[in-house]
Amino acid sequence: MGVPRLAILHESIRNLYFHVPMWFAMIVLFSNSIYFSVKSLATQSHEDDLKAVESVNVGVVFGILGLLTGMVWAKFAWGEFWSFDPKQNFSAISLLLYFAYLILRNAVDEEQKRAKISAIYNIFAFPMMIVLIFVLPRLKDSLHPGNGGNPGFNMYDLDSRMRLVFHPACLGWILIGYWIYTIRYRISALAYKYL
Amino acid sequence: MRKIFLTLILLITTFQLFAQNNDIEMADALRSNGKIYIVVISVVIILVGLLIYLFAIDKRLKMLEKKSDAKN
C-alpha cells in the first residue's frame, strides 16, 4: 500500500502499523483486566481474579514492546531514543503502575485478601493510566502527533490509504494479545485446579 | 598570478558547495532507503519480544505437565 510522502518520517511512517497497535492491544488488555477485577470483587470468584492478573501480565508485555519500538522510531524522527516527551514519560509511568500491581499481588500471601487488594488497586490504576496516556500529554508541548497542538496522524493520511492497513493491523494485534492472554489464563487455571 | 588566484577562488567556492551537500544526519544505514529499516527493526523487536514471551509461557506449561505427570 502506498503511504503519504513526508519529510523526516519517510518510510518509517509505516511504523504506525506496528508501534501504535501495541498500545491499543495493551489498553484493551488492561480494560479486560479491570472488567474482571470489578467482577471478582462482586463474585469473589478465583477465576475472575486470575483473568484480571493474566490480562495485566500480557498487557505489560505489549506496553514494553510499544515503548521499545517507539524509542527506535524516536531516535530517527526526533533525534533521541528518549527525549523526555510527556507522552513517553507518562506511558513509562503508567507501565510502572502496572508493575507495582504485579509486585503488590506477589507480596500478599493470603488468597482472598490478595484478590481484593489487587482488584481495588487495579480500579485506581486504570483511570490513572488513561489520564496519563490520553489526557496529560495533550495539555503539554509534545512531540507526539495529536498532542500539545500537533496535528494528529489522521491529518497526514488525507486519502485514507493508511487506514486500510492500520485498522486491520490494530484488530490483528489486539486479537494476538487476547489470544496470548487466554493461553496464559488457561495455564494458570489448570495450575490452580490441579496443583 | 591571476590564473592561480582564480583557481583558488573557484576551489574555495566548490568547497563550500561540498559542505552544503553534506547533511549532518548520521547513522546512514538506517537513514537510507527512506528509513524503511526502522520499520524492520520495530517488527524484529516485536517478533523477538513475543517469541521470548511465548517460550516463557511454554516453559511454564512444560513444568505444569511434568508436575501433573508425577501426580497421576
Explained architecture:
The complex is a heterodimer of chains A (195) and B (72). Chain A has six helices and no strands. Chain A has 195 residues and is mostly helical. In chain A, α1 (19-43) runs antiparallel to α4, α1 (19-43) runs parallel beside α6 and α3 (86-107) packs antiparallel against α4 (111-139). The radius of gyration of chain A is 18 Å and the shape is elongated. The relative contact order of chain A is 0.17. Chain B has one domain (2-71). Chain B is built from three helices and no strands. Chain B has helices at 2-21, 28-31, 36-71. The mean pLDDT of chain B is 79. Chain A binds chain B through residues 9-12, 14-15, 18-19, 22, 61, 64-65, 68-69, 72-73, 75-76, 176, 180, 183-184, 187, 190-191, 194-195, and chain B through 27, 30-31, 33-36, 38-39, 41-43, 45-46, 49-50, 53-54, 57, 60-61, 64, 67-68, 71.
For the record, give the distance between the C-alpha atoms at the N and C termini of chain B, rounded to a whole number: 102 Å
Content of β-strand of chain B: under 5%
Global Rg of chain A = 18 Å
Structural class of chain A: mainly alpha
Task: State the domain count of chain B.
Answer: 1
Rounded mean pLDDT score of chain B: 79
Largest sheet of chain B: none
Our Rg estimate of chain B from Cα atoms comes to: 30 Å
Strand fraction of chain A equals: under 5%
Coarse morphology of chain B = rod-shaped
Mean pLDDT of chain A: 89
Low-confidence stretches of chain B are: none
Overall morphology of chain A: elongated
The H/E string of chain A reads HHHHHH
- Outline the biggest β-sheet of chain A: none
**Structural domains of chain A: how many:** 1
Task: Characterize the quaternary organization of these chains.
Answer: heterodimer
What is the total tally of β strands of chain A?
Answer: 0
| Low-confidence runs of at least 5 consecutive residues of chain A | none
- The count of β-strands of chain B is 0
Number of continuous helical runs of chain B: 3
